[in-house]
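Q: Sequence in, structure out?
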Amino acid sequence: MAATLPSPRFAYVANFIDNTVSISAINAATGQIRPNGYVLTGGAGPISVTVDPTGQFAYVVNFGSDNISAFSVNPNTGTLTAVGPAVATGNRPRSVAVDPSGKFAYVANFGSHNVSAFTINANTGALTAVGPPVGAGTTPSSVTVDPSGRFAYVANLNSNNVSAYTINANTGVLTSVGLPVAVGNNPSSVTVDPTGSFAYVANRGSRKRVGVYD
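A: Exactly. Output:
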C-alpha cells in the first residue's frame, strides 16, 4: 500500500519482498513521480505505509515481524529517518491509519484479530502503545479513521463485516460501537468520505465489489 504527503510532494510505497519503502518525488504540475531512493523499514514484510496529517512523520507496518516502524520526513527531499526501533503490534499487522489530529495511530492486526492503538509524540513522531489491542472481527485487513477523528472502522476479511469504534479524544482508546456490520464477502479495504457521512467497503470475494454505508 502507498501513501503521499498532504501537499503532496512525495509518495511512499511499502515493498513487501525486500523490506524497504520506496521514496518518490511528485511533479506538482503533472502528477508524475520520480524515484528518489528507498529506506529499509527495520522490519520484515512491510505491507502498509501512511503519513501523518502534518507531513512530518511516516509509519510502516511490518507484516512479517509484527511491528510498526516510525520515521521522520525530510520536508525538502522526502527522505525518511528512523525514529528509534520498530514498536511491537499484534500478530501480522496489515494496515495502519493516523487520525486527523495526528495524535494517534491505529494498526489492524490480521493474525491476532484485533486493533492496536498508539499515541504519537508530537515532537519526535515516536509511538507509545495505548493499552492492549482491542478485539475486531476475523482477520482485520484495513483500518481507517473518519475526518472528525471521532470514529474508527475496521474491515474484517474473513468474517465478512466491519467493526466500528469510538475514539477517546484524550487517550486514543477505542471502544466498540455494538456488533460488527455485515458487508460483502472478504472485505479488504474501508474508507470514509470527506464529510464523514458515508463509508465504502471493497469486497474482494463478492461480485458486488463496493458497498456503501451511512
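The first strand starts at residue 2 and ends at 4.
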